[in-house]
Every structure is written in C-alpha cells, then in structure tokens.
Amino acid sequence: MAGILLILLRVVLIVLLAVLVLALLLLTVRTGVEAAGVNGDITIDLRYGIVRIPLYPPPHRKKREEKPPPPAAEKPPAPKKKGLNLREIELEQAIDLLFTLLGEASDSLRISKLRVRVLFGTDDAAKTGLYLGYFSTLCGMVTPFLENTFEMKDYHVSADADFDAEHTEWAFTVFCSIRPLRLALILLRHGKKLYRMYKNLTKKEEAIENE
User: Cα(97)–Cα(210) distance, rounded to whole angstroms?
Assistant: First the structure.
C-alpha cells in the first residue's frame, strides 16, 4: 500500500512540475496588440505567439444577415457612413486612460511598429493650417516621451496639408507587446474601464450604421 501511495505521489509531483514549467513557458511569450486604420476603418487584433484573436470590429459583425431590399415604391436609403466616427468618442477620457496604461506598462511594453500618416484638409485653408500646426506640436511633445520611455523599433510619423481638399485623410499601424503577467495586472486594475469604452464604441458604430 505504501508503495502505491509513493508512486501516486510521484505522479502528482511530476504533473505539477510539468504544469509549472508549461506556465513559465507561456509567460515568456509576449502578448501583443496589432491595430491598423485608414480613414475611419479600424481593426484591432490580439496576438499571442502565432495565435491571432480579432477584437475590433467584433467577429459576429462579419456574419450579420443581409437586410431584404426595400420595396420599389420606397425611396432608396441614403448610403451608410462607413467606419468609426472618431468625433463620437470621448477623446478626453480615452487619452487619459491611454497615458495611464502607458505609464504603468513603461517597464515592460515594447512598441515594435508605430507608423502614422495624416493629410489635413478642411473647407477652410486657415483651419487646415491650424490643425497641421497643432498636430506637429503634439508630435514634438509625444515623440521624445515615446523614444525615452519605450523600446521603439519602427517609428515614423508624417503630416501634411492639402489646402484644396475638404476632408482629412489618415492612416496608422501599430504593434506593441508586453509580458502576459504584467498585462494581467494592468487589466485587473483597468479592465472595467476598457470594457465600458469598448462597449460604447460598438454601440455608437451600430447607431451610425442604422442612420
């Protein structure tokens, strides 16, 4: 009987050791977020090793049933506005939360790629130049902070103005990664705020699409 108990104890210890080793190996794999956007169309994916999980837009949106065509007598609906209306987001709240997250992750966050391109255009040439000046000033303040705080590998920001255009065009791509344990601690602190902001974004996009 004692021999059987000893064998069982060894098996349990081996299993626990294997689980511990596996957990340590998983913790060494960096968790990354990859985001890209062009003129309002934004995609955000969570990456863990070779695994990619789409976060935004939500996966279920790709399987939405098509609405039946309206009757011929009815006036055809106006074209829907695509993408995300950034003016509808609580920018002040989002920026404040962003800087809070960056500050807490500064010791372990790695920004592998950050590329931004903005071409300002409005119906007022003076306003266009003013926006370009504001953006250039913001870049002058943020760039040193990013370069001195994080490990930056691929960083490029360009901005220009088209005084003949009536709309601003922009595009960005960013990939950053962090250790899973550090990410878990940050999510525990700010998970509710992030989820609430995520739900607000999805609700507002639905409202825009149904206009």
Answer: 29
How far apart are alpha carbons 190 and 95 in whole angstroms? 14
Coil, strand or helix at 95: helix
Q: Is the dihedral of CA 101, 90, 203, 68 positive or negative?
A: negative
Give the contacts of 78 (CB within 8 A, at least 6 positions apart).
211
- Predicted confidence (pLDDT) per residue in 28-47, tens digit: 677 888 999 999 888 999 88
Q: The tokens of 163 are what?
A: 């005084």
pLDDT at 76 over 70: no
Q: Residue 174: which of 78, 109, 128 has the closest Cα?
A: 109
Report the largest interatomic distance among the alpha carbons of the chain, rounded to a whole angstrom.
90
Helix (H) or strand (E) holding 204: helix 180-209
